[in-house]
Specification:
It is built from 13 helices and 38 strands. The protein is α+β, with helices and mostly antiparallel strands and 675 residues long. The strands form 7 sheets. Strands 6, 7, 8, 9, 12, 13, 15, 16, 20 and 21 form a 10-stranded antiparallel β-sheet that branches. The chain has an 8-stranded antiparallel β-sheet with strand order 1-2-3-4-11-18-17-14, covered by helices on one side. A 7-stranded parallel β-sheet has the order 29-28-25-24-23-22-30. The chain is globular, with a radius of gyration of 25 Å.
């Protein structure tokens, strides 16, 4: 109680004095509402209430500009309008087939009372499970060229609580383990950032529809108040745009439970509908690849005696994929440029010339004959300008060879990507700055022209653009499985239960699960059980799922491998049955192509017993539950491979008791039988 009083006092002191509410909008069900205020000096702010309780205290709005006076004060309300919207739209692929998009919208125009008389629109869309708001710069003579130095947008969390976050502006981009701290102890955080207040409310802060703008981070101002911290540009301005234009949406997903956050469609709904037309060529798939062996240092990306991307090795992977019902084979290190210091010299990469021991044309034809496709790989070392010089030729080559998906990579320290300026000079850029967001859109649009899907690693953050451009089929953007191959530390047991309620709120992640060989170059090895590795195919959503381990580990363990063979990658429905951030989570998903359901549950370093009601199954129907669970002696430290596989018949009236070992999990295939 004392902590809340201190937090409220601090927020009141920082809030605009004697502000008058000038506009208000509530969600369709009256759960959330937003108010816009103006103080006597004409400074705009907003606040958010949930069921009558303030959850975001008055928070400032506005901009610092590089080429004009700031947009922050002397505003008056010029006009306001509201509308309601309700639709159900269909995803071409995704966590669920149909998505309801139901919100009430408030649009206000603020105009300066003195001086330049510039106008700024603010638009709020209020859903029952979250809020999105953005600025729109209208066309006007006194602000045609907009050079943004900083956003003044604030988020003042009204109650104390706990935050899960990773640091912004560090060298390793998004690839950090999550901090769990009091909200008041957050530094400068990347989004999504998730908080749980002391009264149990969950709020996730992020953004949607990040196009031609700089990515937003959150800088703590103390006592639960955060300010937007835009990623730097290549010169003094963080964003340069011609009016009219909108900013990305600033988003708050709000729920009583962690699972409620993961069920939200807010980020997708704040993006525009599909612009590509027919996207039947975008294919979710499972794949194997020439990849993990390099992370284990059993092979190299570079040419030479230990080169991984050889014709013989790739043929072996194609044969394995065809025999086990997999759709694709990823091949890394196939193209000229990996020798020497590729990390710092991306200019050596060719995206059309293979190494002499890799028969690209022959392998693509061989894969097609076997009903498999190669998955392309374009590592750029962050040299975006060099990639763009070859991109059209590279995509044309892939289209001719029947390669319909490509994994791109931007391995470079943060702030060390390379783009081409307007004068042709090479400039250094941040991965989530405006220049790199422009680059990623050029890649997506070029790939679409050649009917190619893109899985970007070391990417810009996911903000739901897959709705508008469905060929953005997956991305990395977090600490993936490779850290369990060589990281010190490797990914800890809590990592995946953190990801579900933080990074995964943004969208799909190519996490690359399915490891059975738990001893790696990392001193800790893979800190999960085998059953948890299987469960990750359900827990960590991606329409591209890799069976990441060495082929021999699957060949030696056909019974647990069967779940990887069976599990789909495209779903008609997804349900979070239970979960707590960083502790545990249980998710059920229904196959889009059948009546079968799949269930995954994972825990952190603590063993747990969870209950999972099967009430989501069709009433009156029987299902064969194929259960892959931790064995009686399973433990991620001492006995990760102890797995029990069994079957039983279940119905919608059953509740399963899931016993999870420390670092463990459980994966269940629910095969629909007759009534």
């Amino acid at each position: 109680m004392i902590g809340r009083l201190i937090a409220l006092l601090t927020l009141l002191l920082a809030a605009p004095a004697s502000a008058e509410t000038v506009a208000r909008i509530a969600s369709p069900g009256g759960v959330l509402s937003a108010e816009l205020q103006l103080d006597p000096e004409g400074r705009p702010s907003y606040s958010v209430q949930r069921l009558g309780r303030e959850i975001i205290a008055p928070s400032r709005l506005g901009f610092l500009l590089l080429n004009a006076p700031k947009l922050e004060r002397n505003f008056a309300l010029d006009s306001q309008s509201t509308r309601s919207f309700d639709e159900t739209w269909e995803q071409p692929w995704g966590e669920r087939r149909f998505v309801r998009n139901h919100y009430n919208e408030l649009r206000v125009r603020f105009t300066e009372r003195t001086g330049l008389a510039r106008s700024l629109d603010v638009v709020f869309r209020v859903f029952d499970d979250g809020i999105g708001f953005r600025y729109e710069f209208p066309e006007q003579p006194n602000l045609a060229n907009v050079e943004i130095q900083d956003e003044l947008t604030e988020f003042a969390v009204a109650d104390p609580g706990t935050a899960w976050w990773i640091p912004a502006f560090e060298w390793n981009r998004e690839e950090y383990l999550y901090n769990r701290t009091p909200i008041s102890a957050v530094g400068t955080a990347q989004t999504p950032m998730t908080v749980r207040t002391d009264n149990g409310l969950h709020i996730a802060f992020h953004e949607a529809a990040l196009i031609d703008y700089s990515g937003m981070n959150l800088a703590s101002m103390g006592h639960g108040r955060f300010r937007a911290a835009l990623t730097p540009g290549t010169d003094g301005a963080k964003v340069r745009r011609q009016a009219p234009f909108p900013t990305p949406w600033r988003t708050l997903q709000v729920a009583d439970s962690a699972g409620g956050l993961a069920m939200s469609n807010l980020i997708l709904n704040l993006n525009e509908p599909n612009r590509l037309g027919d996207v039947s060529w975008v294919r979710p798939m499972k794949y194997v690849g020439v990849w993990w062996e390099m992370h284990l240092d059993r092979a190299t990306w570079a040419s030479g005696d230990r080169h991984g991307a050889t014709t013989a090795n790739v043929r072996r992977h194609v044969d394995f994929a065809a025999a086990n019902g997999f759709d694709g084979v990823l091949v890394e290190g196939w193209n000229v440029g990996w020798d020497g210091d590729w990390f710092g010299n991306g200019q050596e990469f060719s995206f059309t010339r293979p190494y002499p021991d890799f028969d690209l044309e022959g392998l693509a034809a061989y894969a097609r004959r076997r009903g498999v496709q190669l998955i392309g790989h374009h590592e750029t070392s962050g040299f975006a300008a060099h990639y763009e010089d070859q991109m059209e030729d590279a995509f044309s080559l892939y289209q001719r060879l029947g390669v319909h998906a490509v994994k791109t990579g931007y391995v470079a320290d943060a702030g060390q990507a390379k783009v081409r300026g307007a004068d042709g000079r090479i400039l250094y850029a941040w991965h989530e700055g405006q220049a790199m967001n422009q680059h990623h859109m050029r890649v997506i649009e070029a790939a679409a022209r050649h009917r190619i899907s893109v899985n970007a690693h070391e990417p810009t953050k996911d903000t739901g653009l897959r709705r508008t451009y469905p060929n953005i089929i997956a991305r990395e953007g977090a600490r993936g499985m490779e850290y369990s191959a060589w990281g010190n530390p490797s990914n800890p047991p809590e990592h995946e239960a953190n990801l579900v309620f933080t990074r995964m709120l943004a969208g799909p992640m190519d996490y690359t699960p399915g490891i059975f060989g738990m001893r790696t170059r990392s001193p800790q090895g893979v800190q999960t059980t085998w059953a948890k590795q299987l469960a990750l195919y359900v827990i960590i959503y991606s329409p591209l799922q890799m069976a990441a381990d060495l082929l021999e580990n699957y060949e030696a363990n056909p019974r647990p491998f069967q779940f990887i063979r069976d599990v789909p990658v495209d779903w008609s429905e997804s349900l979070v049955l239970n979960g707590e951030i960083g502790d545990y989570v249980t998710i059920a998903r229904k196959d889009r192509a059948s009546e079968n359901w799949y269930l995954g549950a994972v825990t952190d370093e603590e063993g747990r017993v969870l209950n999972a009601s099967l009430g989501f199954l069709t009433p009156g129907r029987r299902y064969r539950a194929q259960i892959y669970r931790d064995g009686p002696n399973a433990d991620y430290r001492a006995n990760p491979g102890d797995i029990a596989i069994e079957e039983r018949i279940v119905t919608s009236t059953d509740t399963l008791t899931l016993r999870l070992a420390p670092g463990g999990g459980q994966a269940i295939r629910l095969v629909a039988l007759g009534r």
